[in-house]
Specification:
- With 274 residues, this protein is α/β, with parallel strands linked by helices.
- The protein is 36% helix and 21% strand.
- β5, α7 (151-164) and β6 (169-173) form a beta-alpha-beta unit.
- The longest helix has 18 residues, at 193-210.
- The N and C termini lie far apart (54 Å).
Amino acid sequence: MTIELVHTRGDLAAARKALPGTVAVVMTMGALHEGHRELIRAARRHADHVLVTIFVNPLQFGPGEDFDRYPRTLDSDLAACRAERADLVFAPDRPEMYPGGEPVVRVDPGPLGDVLEGAVRPGHFSGVLTVVCKLFLLTAADVAFFGEKDYQQLALIKRMVRDLEIPVGVRGVPTVREPDGLALSSRNRYLSAEHRQAALVLSRALRAGAERDTAAGALAAAESVLSGVPVDYLALTDPDLGPAPRSGPARLLVAARIGTTRLLDNVPLQLKGV
């Protein structure tokens, strides 16, 4: 299948006008894996055309984080997009995305941007929401698909769209995992064989928590599995990342460092409040 690759906003606008019907966007930083491919497949099921963006966004990396070594794999990314029948790929460079330099005006994520990931990575979500907002405007997509692995990011994007009345639908896609339970992530390639095995503790802890039907039980079960692991946070919340409910749907989230690699994971669970 032929796929169109564009690098400038002018070429994007022209290519976008040539796509009739509904258009779905999948926003990525490249280094595509099966999780990204599942996003593209979900987008294809719900729209006439699929547009994929590939941009390693400097605004969401803090000092000392892995911006410089984040994998750039455009050729293999294009092959993945072609295999999943995406129609258009927008891969701008930094000056094209931020022609005036880093933007002075940015999207403020509000209080939800200061907890969990936001507490560990100050300013991260302002960078995420700013680039996502720009890409919504540039792509003029009807619907956007994001993975649930980055659950707080998904929750904040939904809130931004709702609060700012951005005319795009936002849909989450369940986390894609390896057969042994490891959540797929572009950063998994940083893991040595030993550390990859050690990383399975995250999914084991979440599974243990999800088997319990009370908030206290879920947290205690997960904490027991994570004993000795350098955890940034383990949190139980409602689906919108508010306080955990006594009963009903909830979310269990964890972030931890395995060697020098920082990994995130989460699972949904149903609490019975007994």
